[in-house]
Structures are given as structure tokens and as C-alpha cells.
Write a structure and sequence with these properties.
Elements lengths: L1 H11 L3 E6 L9 E2 L2 E7 L4 H7 L2 H12 L2 E6 L2 H15 L6 H11 L3 E8 L2 E11 L2 E9 L3 H4 L1 H15 L4 E8 L3 H8 L4 E3 L1 E6 L16 H7 L4 H15 L1
Parallel strand pairs: 7-8
Antiparallel strand pairs: 1-10, 2-10, 3-8, 3-9, 4-5, 5-6, 6-7
Helix pairs in contact: 3-7, 4-5
Amino acid sequence: MISAASNLARTLGVDYLEVRNTQTQCSEWPRQDLYVTFRKEILPDVESNMEAIPRKQRAMVRKGISNGLTSQCDGDVARLHDIYAHSVRNLGTPVFSRRYFQLLKEEFGEACDVVTVLHGNKPVASVLNFYFRDEVLPYYGGGLSEARDLAANDFMYWEVMRRACERGFKLFDFGRSKIGTGAYSFKRNWGFEPTPLTYQFRLIKAEKIPDVNPLNPKFQAFIALWRRLPVPLTKVLGPPIVRGIG
């Protein structure tokens, strides 16, 4: 399979082929070790999953509950996209188009849903989740500025886990994160242990491994500028940009 992909990359004349895995595939290819992934068993009953969360993180989930947060599970990608756009703007990252989210929902159907957290009647956090075999994977998620004080993101991921438990899913895949980032620490706080991911590159036209990630110092000025843009403007400018780098 790797050989076929390498041949296709040469045929297409791309700059490079990127292969992601938990194991080294081709020892002679250059590699990056920036990312890890987080996966953990979902226990059979809801209360056992709550008790399995480390004490400090469990307190944050209970804080969200005590703040009166509620959740809804549906296919409302428009509501998700509005929240996600605010969240990634605050991170200095271009946003995907709403149409992209809609296409994902249409393509994956019942294997995909949206869990949205509300404070009163106001949506404050939302996440798009995928289901495969016995696994749940919360993928595109974010929260408004007030979500932090409300513990809405903590509550949101608990609601995803709780609902998956009640439906009989057995594995929670928290996805990848860059080592040393806030997302990395957040997932470890939930009691998840990191598994290294190996990113290897077959250089075709490129002379070195690409360094397209927010930790690269050359992107800091762009990130700072993006954080100051109005969210409606980022929804217009973001999709063409992210299509070129994603």
C-alpha cells in the first residue's frame, strides 16, 4: 500500500507524500514527531465513567453541571459552525466553510452527529462527532469566550462520553494533539495517556519536510492578525486559505 501511494505521488508530481501512523512504515523516510493521539476505554455504565475521570477534571465537569448547562444531540451543523468559527478565530486559525460541515453530515449520516451545550437558551459550545464500529471520535469542536468560565467544554466532552456509553460504544478517541500544547494537557487531565504518532514524508519535489503548523514562528504575525478580525470576515476569508494549507 505504501509503495502504491509513493508511485501515485510521483505520477502526480506532488511536492511530497505524508504518511501518518502509530508505527514506522519506511525507516529511510524523514519523519516528524510532533503529534500524539489519545484513546481510552468507555466503561459499561455512566457513573463508572464519571468516577474514572481524575479528580480535578471531574470537578470541572461537575462545575458545568452545577452551572445549569444542558446538551442537545442533533445534526445542526449551522449552529456548530457559528461556534467553531468563533473558537478558531480566537486561536488565530482559519475556519472551514459551513458547506464542508454540511457535506460531512450528509456523507456520514447516522455515523455522525453534533452535541451542543447550552447555557439557558444560548449555545456556548459544540462538537461534531463520528462513530465507527465501537468507537466515538469528537472531531471538530469549540466554544464561545464564556465557555471557559462555565466549564462548557469540559461538560461537552463528558456529554459525548455519556451519550456514547448509553448507546453501547466502548472506546473514546480524543484524537491527535501537538505535544506541549493546551489541547495535549487538557486530554491528559482526563486521564488519557498519549500514544506517539509517526509522520513520515516521501519527498518528491520538496527538498525538506514541510513545517506547516501554528508553532512555526513565521506564522505568528498572521495568527496575531487573524485573532483581531471580525468573525463574519473570517468566515469569508478562511475557507480559501485553509483549503490551500489543510
